[in-house]
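Take a specimen:
=====
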Amino acid sequence: MERTAETGSPHPHTGQTGTLGTVRANLFVSGLYAWLATVAAPTFDSGNLGAAISASAALVLLVTGLLLAPRWPVIGRAVTMGGLLGPSVLTWVLLGDAVDVSRLEPIRAASGAVGWMLFAFGWGAVRNVRSVPENDPHVIEGTPLRPRHTLPLLTYVVFGVALVGGFLPWLLAWRVARPEHALLAHVIGLLCAVGLITVGAQVAVRRVGRWMPAAPASRLGAATNAFVALAVVAVLGIVVWLVRS
């Protein structure tokens, strides 16, 4: 019987072997990698006893949650996620200056970020090998659905411009030389990149079909909050510039 990735309950319609074991292995490997790179390495180099206890608890709870997941999926998920994240954050707090931005090794920090990203992606379920969703008995039979429109060339151009423009603020963040400000610059650059790419995708898709733009007054009203936020940031920037000069 097939077992779903999160609940571990048998699937009633396919005789395939489930992916629960694969998902648990992905979570364990990615979680262990993130723990080793960002928690264990600075902890055991510092000799801090409290941080060592907290770091060890994070690893124990990670393994415990994965073992509980097949029988109690909700409890196992909570223990795995909260058990790894909570003690890890506590460990960083106890380490204090040992995990200061100026003391972090760039390669270790980047590898740790990749590990946490893989741990987050590891919660996703994958389709079973040789399984075809269209063969499920609950599938509603009918003619295949055809797209109503085809995307014109201008849509790809608009999205391409948005994609390139979204990467610019993120790349500019690498020009910040001061370590205490570099992390904030990367966060702001990443948020700007996500926002620009998201809005650019929406604009590119809405140009398909007979979409008519709203009246100028309504468009200005919808952008009022953005204009106010931009004005506040500009004023703050001018004040900082005047103070420093």
The chain has two domains: 2-128, 148-212. The chain has a mean pLDDT of 76. Residues 2-128 form one domain.
